Amino acid sequence: LAKIRGAQVLAAVRKADQVEALQAQGFDAIALGQPDALGGQVNAVFKGGADVIFDTTGFWLPAAVAGLAPFGRIAIIAAPVDGHVQLPALALYRKGGSVVGINSLLYNCEQCAVMLEQFGRFFDEGSLPLPTGLREVALADGVQCYEEVNKGSADKVIFLP
């Protein structure tokens, strides 16, 4: 979605094969290593840092601060299992940075449907590729899937009734 809106995107992923797959689709990508290296990796692509960093796990929030541009924002959609991170507040405020929490549970079904409809057209137009590698799982096995995620699984799961 960011690329469609004109942003220069850098994907940071855990596995080398994910880097290769993203690069084959035309995206800049880096392999995540040690958290203290993330700032340097981001700054190697975005001189002066990134305007927006999107953290889908919450784990990388402290490390992301070093990769942030002045007045940049870090958007988070999840937190680590215990719900806590140690944030380098001094580095964040010296950059004028901010953290934005994105919680889809704050929206009802109708509001979510409107948002999905707004970007769903990009799939229909072919400007946004359909996801691949999806795994269908019975809803009854949902707890097991979440346990796998907590152990490091990156599977894309669709729950079926």
Automatic annotation (TrEMBL):
<dbReference type="Pfam" id="PF00107">
    <property type="entry name" value="ADH_zinc_N"/>
</dbReference>
<dbReference type="InterPro" id="IPR036291">
    <property type="entry name" value="NAD(P)-bd_dom_sf"/>
</dbReference>
<dbReference type="InterPro" id="IPR013149">
    <property type="entry name" value="ADH-like_C"/>
</dbReference>
<feature type="domain" description="Alcohol dehydrogenase-like C-terminal">
    <location>
        <begin position="1"/>
        <end position="106"/>
    </location>
</feature>
<protein>
    <submittedName>
        <fullName>Zinc-binding alcohol dehydrogenase family protein</fullName>
    </submittedName>
</protein>
